[in-house]
Amino acid sequence: MKNKKIVAKILAGIFTLSITMPVFANEINTSIGTVSATSDSGRLVHLSSYVTGLGQGSAEIVAFSSELGFMYVINSDFLTIDIVDINEPTNPTLVNRLDVAQIGYEQGFSVGDVPSVAVNNIRGIIGIAVQHENHMEGGYIVLATLTGEYISHFRTLPQPDNIVFSPNGNYVLTADEGEPITGIFDEENDPISGITFVRLEDMYHRSIDFTEFDNRREELISNGVILQRNVPVSRDLEPEYIAFDINSTRAFISLQEANSIATFDLENYGWISIYGLGIVDHNQPGFEIDINRNEEIIIQNENVFGIRQPDGIAAMTINGTTYVLTANEGDAREWGDFLNTFELDYEWAPNLEVFYNHLLEGVTEDNLYILGSRSFSIFRAETNGSLTLVFDSGSQFEKLSAEIFPFFNSNHSGGWLNRIDGRSHRKGSEPESIQVLTHKNRLYAIIGLERQGGIFMFDVTNPYETFYVDYINVRDLDEPWNSTTPWISGDLGAEGIAVVTAENSPIDIPLILVANEISGTVSIFAVTDDVIRDSAYFWSLL
Fold first, then answer.
1. Distance (Å, rounded) from C-alpha 172 to C-alpha 60?
2. pLDDT of 459-495, one tens digit each?
3. pLDDT computed for residue 415 by the predictor
4. CA 114 to chain CA mean position, Å
5. Per-residue pLDDT for 138 more than 50?
6. Within the chain, how many helices (H) and strands (E) appear?
7. What confidence score (pLDDT) does residue 25 get?
8. Which residues pair with 439 in a beta bridge?
9. Which of 297, 433, 484, 509 counts the highest number of beta carbons within 10 A?
10. Three-class SS of residue 212?
11. What is the mean pLDDT of the chain?
């Protein structure tokens, strides 16, 4: 593509870049042809997409090593990690496919799932979360070199889901989810959940559960926590994701189903608090939604309430104040024969998915509650552990995507089928993950949309005056969905995000890596500005 044509499209307000995705190693046919990546403002540029070639479940989480310029991609269904060289981000190259199951066999521990990976750029190691084959048994934190050689492993509580290193490089933590896979909430089927940490300077490790809150149920409900009736708190709370303050003194853990954040003291190794995240009233201005799957875009106020229930969270510190950012996905409990939601024919919107209120404590009996709030939020983290809402994006995801992109609340299956309204009766665009990128003294929230796909970029430098910057999506409108080769339809199912600052980037330009679990691909985006776009160096990369 000629540079003059690209610049012309930027000036026109729509940036379109077509790139043929490459074929990778191990004789895997991963060529997907040409996919058009459309950016609204031109700030986000699609450089390439790495294709695992393994299909669904093969690219859920991604992490990045600034030392080697490698990214690490979880293949949870295959119990492997792809180690990929992105020093030339337009040509990602598979270096090694790390067999975690083989490591478990050699070291004598069970590998039932590999849900997460993280990189410690200070110590030059990776951390891998490993779940036991028995959902009631504790899992493992596995430490390895940047090239995948085993170092050590540590026991966790059941089902470690998310693994992260603290900003100072001294700790690794897992969110040990402990879900009741059978759908039975007793001691034999529903494991205790919590977190596990390893202090890396001396390899001291410890697991902390929530049993101390079993006798504080009323306190939690008064703090806005939503609980299941007749289930002990320690078995009810299921950690999803972890973020840290800049000083590595506090860890924030999302408790998605409980619509709350637990704050952990890393200096004293104890819980500070658990606070609820509040409920969105979709009958209020600025919180309009489309809840009718009728293949029309009708965004309006509705007499329903959205329970935020974030999956991914992030944290940032501004002038000594820490803020927690939440991607308000929403989630049902669906295990075995148990399901805590049902489809309701609500006024003009049939099949609206809502919660069974009688199964929950902390909600109002007569209200209709839907899953998630279809937004992202910013909370000020107070020193006592409470959270104060300072921003919510409200209806912006739906309104903006309706204006700038031909997919709206769409399903994974893509193509022209389901491109409009496929998920309006459930979670809408389904914001799944969030990270914060620092670039030239500005802070940007990067939010991935699991169903609709793509990422939103908001400027959060002043959390109280947050504003939209850009949206980009890599989906093929013409190519029908194929479960055997899902990457043919582009990048589907944005799950995990890793941000790379200009200082740590192999091309000295910020990068955003987005793991797409449905297509089994990783989108690689550059974050540009006027200076970068005026640079001959940037265009030479393309």
1. 20
2. 999 999 999 999 999 987 677 777 788 888 889 899 9
3. 53
4. 16
5. yes
6. 7, 39
7. 29
8. 442
9. 433
10. helix
11. 90
Length of the chain as a residue count:
542
User: How many percent of the chain have pLDDT more than 90?
Assistant: 77
Question: In a 3-state reduction of DSSP, which class is residue 120?
Answer: strand
Neighbours of 388 (CB within 10 A): 11
Lowest-pLDDT range, 19-28, 289-298, 355-364?
19-28
Per-residue pLDDT averaged across 9-34, rounded?
31
- The Cα 464–Cα 321 span in angstroms is 13
Asked if 446 and 313 count as a contact pair (C-beta separation under 8 A), the reply is no
Q: For residues 280 and 154, what is the distance between their CA atoms, to the nearest angstrom?
A: 40
Tokens of 100: 């975690």
C-alpha separations of 345 from 21, 110, 284, 476 in Å: 43, 45, 22, 33
Among 391, 387, 357, residue whose Cα is nearest residue 376:
391
The whole-angstrom separation of Cα 362 and Cα 355 is 12
And the tokens for 371?
Answer: 């899953």
Does the global pTM surpass 0.90?
yes
Task: Write down the pLDDT at residue 414.
Answer: 55
Cβ atoms of 289 and 428 within 8 Å: the answer is yes
Is pLDDT above 60 for 82?
yes
Report yes or no: 193 and 254 within 8 Å, Cβ to Cβ.
no
Spell 326-349 as b/e; 16+ CB within 10 A means b. Answer: bbbbbbbbebeeeebbeebebeeb
User: Which of 486, 481, 365, 355 shows the shortest CA–CA distance to 427?
Assistant: 355
